[in-house]
Amino acid sequence: MAHPIMPKATAVWLVENSALTFSQIGEFCGLHELEVQAIADEDVTIGMQGMDPISSGELTRDEIERCSGDPNASLKTAKPTVPQPRAKQKGARYTPLSKRQDRPDAIAWLLKNYPELSDAQISRLIGTTKPTINAIRDKSHWNTPNIKPQNPVNLGLCSGQDLEKVLTRARAAQEREAAEAERRAAETSQAAQTEIGAEKTAKGKAAGTAAAEESGAEAAEAAPTATEESGAAGAAQAADAESAPGTARD
Question: Tens digit of pLDDT for each residue in 48-64?
Answer without folding.
Answer: 888 888 887 888 889 89
